[in-house]
Design brief:
The protein is elongated. The chain has three helices and five strands. It has 172 residues and is α/β, with parallel strands linked by helices. A five-stranded mixed β-sheet has the order 2-1-3-4-5, with helices on one face.
């Protein structure tokens, strides 16, 4: 058993050494030339949806800023002329029934959130992007939205931020 464990450790160590020496891939997906890009800024993301949950704006904004600053070496500044800029709005916050039970009432409800993001690359404008991403979570209709709303907004915001990160800084 010890030799198997030792072999696994040695294999992982070898892969790490090879990856560091030959490939400049980042496991977080970021693909940034730090010789050209030093700064990033964020404009507020107002809620422009018909249904408004005010805490969502701050939850989403904080998650976006945290992911970008934690997974890159970009310095966050408060200047629209930063090397990279994120701006946009929350365009959808909606509820819809998903499953109907025997009594013709919904048994599941879906909360959907969509965000439009303008990714502005002030160094290379060809890389600028305007995307809309959306994500959802279903919950039992016997639960009140007010009881699950905060958790759902956290989860959906995290998924939205991952989608945004991959479509902008990930350069997939």
């Amino acid at each position: 058993m010890r030799t198997r464990f030792a072999h696994i450790i040695l294999a992982l160590l070898a892969i790490t050494v090879i990856a560091q020496g030959c490939i400049s891939y980042k496991f977080n997906g970021a693909s940034i030339d730090y010789n050209k890009y030093k700064t990033v800024s964020f404009a507020p993301f107002p809620i422009r949806a018909a249904l408004v949950y005010p805490p969502l704006q701050q939850v989403f904004q904080n998650k976006l800023q945290d992911v970008v600053t934690q997974q890159t070496r970009l310095s966050q500044i408060d200047n629209p002329n930063s090397d990279l800029r994120f701006e946009g709005e929350i365009t959808n916050y909606s509820l819809s029934p998903q499953a109907v039970g025997d009594n013709a009432y919904a048994t599941r409800t879906r909360l959907t959130i969509a965000v439009r993001v303008r990714y502005i690359d002030n160094v290379n404008s060809a890389l600028s992007n305007d995307v809309t991403v959306s994500a959802y979570r279903d919950f039992d209709s016997n639960q009140l939205l007010i009881d699950v709303q905060d958790q759902l907004c956290e989860e959906i915001s995290a998924e939205l931020v991952d989608l945004i990160f991959n479509q902008t800084l990930g350069n997939w």
